[in-house]
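Dear all,

This email documents one entry for the complex benchmark we are building for the journal club exercise. For each entry we list the sequence lines for every component of the assembly. Then comes the predicted three-dimensional structure of the complex as a token string, followed by one or two observations. Please use this as the template for your own entries, and keep the labels exactly as they appear.
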Amino acid sequence: MTEKITVAITGNPNVGKTSIFNAITDSKQHVGNWPGVTVERKIGKRVHNDIEMEIVDLPGTYSLTAYSLDEIIARDFIIEEKPDIVVQVIDATNLERNLYLTTQLMELGVKMIIALNMTDLALAKGDSIDAENMQEFLEIPVVSTIGSKGNGIEGLLDAVAGEIDKTQFTESVFTYEEEIENNADELGSILGTDPYFAHYPLRWFSMKLLEGDENIIKKARESDSYTRINEILSKIDADSLEAKIADQRYKTIQAMLRQVCDINTEHLSGSDMVDRVVTNRVLGIPIFLSLMWAAFEITFTFATPFMNIIDIFFGWLAETATNVINIPWLASLVGEGMIAGVGSVLIFLPNILLLFFMLSLMEDSGYMSRAAFIMDKLMSKIGLHGKSFIPLIMGFGCNVPAIMATRTIEDTRDRLITILITPFMSCGARLPVYVLLAGAFFGRDAGVVIFSLYAFGILVAIVSAKLMRSTILRGEDAPFIMELPSYKIPTLKGSTIHMWERGKIYLKKAGTIILIGVVGVWLLASIPAPGSGGIFASEEIYGSTNSVIGVIGVMLEPLVAPLGFDWRIAVALLFGVVAKEIVVGSMGVLYGVGENEASLSAVLAAGAMTPLAGLGLMVFTLLYAPCFACIGVIKRETGSWKWTMFQLLYGTGLAWGSAFVVYQVGSRMGLLA
Amino acid sequence: MKQNHENKELIFAALAGALYTIFGIFHIAEGLGINTATASQLFVPGDILGGFCLVVIGAVFLYGLKEMKQGINAGVSFVYVGILMSLVFMGAYLLIMGGTLLDSFIVPDDYEGWSIMETFRPGIYLGLLSLAGILHWKDRFSLNEVLVFREGA
């Protein structure tokens, strides 16, 4: 009599499941969709040793904490459909990652067999794996296979037939630390008394509850015991327990790997080696911070001589223009308005280009994807998706494309939050303000101050995201799944092109919006205010409180006076909404840099502003309303004026509050006096 | 033979890890205002964040040492990546040194009484150790389009 059984083939993506499935079923298979979803479902038949096997090829899954549709299908099939046996296909060249799923299947208590696939590739790499030793360690049959060539398939089917007849099998359970075990036992005793859970392996269900698996918690909510379950869950920190459980599993895997195989590290690829280090759970984030700090330090320090060259050039050009042009108002327009204004912005071109160059190096090498990967844990803690990290990092270049890049985020809440916090990332246009003020007031510590501002922007973004996630945009966070590309040595040509493409935008802006902006500022600074009786562009009127701009500035001054800013800064900030570079350009015009030999930086350092007010101005520039282009793209991407206005008001409110704290608290404490 | 090879990496990881960590702590201490004569003789500036970076590089080497001692052969990855990181920082400091020197020619007034040695720092001379490391294990590093640590040594 023929026995009928169901065999599920599971494993990580790209481990050769389908080649094993094809080798087993040959042409006796049919393809359809899983019930209710359009994910390919492959079922085949094979008779072996009088056993009729229905083979089901499950979608690839990294773990049994189901996030994606593929993973939910795979997990639900194993739990709900209860196949007679599960064959886990393991990539022998990547044991550590694949065995993580093994630990979870073992906890599930299913009857299973391991197909150690791609053993030919492992051998070619010089790895030696002792399958027998592995079988002994795991107490699970392990069969070496080469699915693409059909090797080991008969042995695998023999193992299935042999295992199916076993009436007793050991349910391998890992032992975790006391806190986890106690909680698991407590939950297990509750689940055991509720018939609703009779269908599930109790130990596994308890562990999933402790890991904070949303899908499992949702199932538990439907039971009568949920109040008692929730009492236990509310006392624990699921994030911390999840990390501890994963850590224990990896320790077990590493202990086993040491016993059963000898990985030839001389054959590890560069990508693998670098990934082991830069995605390390302990060192990943410090390494990322160190590299970013090095980038900012170079941006500020190495660019200084080139900035000075541009500064000297524009100083000479403004002076020459003023001397050559005989018409006083035109000389003032060209010297103090156009050249000084645009020069004040162009001086920062070396910084911009260097920063873009270094960000390009990181992106082109493939490191930025890893940065997103290592930041995912932190991102999920603040209620965001790992994918949000890439737009945020892009925001360091320019907020506009960064906001557009949020289109890759599927969850609408995640996307909206990312859009709303991206303007807190210091874009390239804010860098001139930082470099100017940090250079003027903080000397050799300027690099540290600038780095701190970038870090402060990130902190504000994180806190804001957490705040929004827990109030106006509540919802569950989605998991991070991302394919990491291989590392590449970035080419000088490639990175230079990327740098130039971004730098060109800055130059274009300097030649258009910023030029128009500074000419506008000059014009308003030259037109006498009604009733002042002055003459257009005269020395008495230009840039004084008797000019139109002076009147506007004086009107605005009470708003910014508590922050230590004068009317000139109020005007510069107002014009900065057009483009952030205009903040510096306007200051260049309003502080009359054109006619002075001293640079704007020297004018400010000489007492035009206090260091504390300078720090407050940097903080204000970082947080307040983004530029027009950015506002436009926020409106377009959110499709809502409500959210656009929210970002503007929220950001400007935060900016004012933060600058107020910096100036007022700092003044009272006598800091930076 | 293989044992000798691993021993070399263990010794290198221990030495580089200890040196980078100690010098990193020196930087941080100086940055916090704890001045020592030794630190100034070794060109250690007061630089908390720079010190943090050196400690991170030291930690990478020491993590590799820990793994290799536990028998995890792949721990050697940390030694190689530690070498790459320290060379990146050495390059960064050399660029900064060059930039400052160039600036002293452009605006000499700002640099009265200044000497180039003021920009010399441990990140540069410690990098020489990594340079020796990369020269010794140069066969492991291949600068093809795809970064590959070559087979065999």
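Observations: Chain B touches chain A through 50 residues (CB under 8 Å). DSSP finds six helices and two strands in chain B.
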